[in-house]
Amino acid sequence: MPAAFAGGAVIGVLGGLIGLGGAEFRLPLLIGLFQFAALEAVILNKAMSLVVVASALPFRANTVPFSEVAAHWPIIVNLLAGSLLGAWFGAGWATRLTSHTLYRVIAIMLGLIAIVLLLGHGASGSGAMLTGPVQAVAGVMAGFGIGIVASLLGVAGGELLIPTLVLLFGADIKLAGSLSLAVSLPTMIVGFTRYSRDRSFAVLGQNRRFVLVMAAGSVLGSFIGGQLLGMAPTPVLLPLLAAILVVSAIKVWRH
Question: What is the DSSP letter of 127?
Answer without folding.
Answer: S
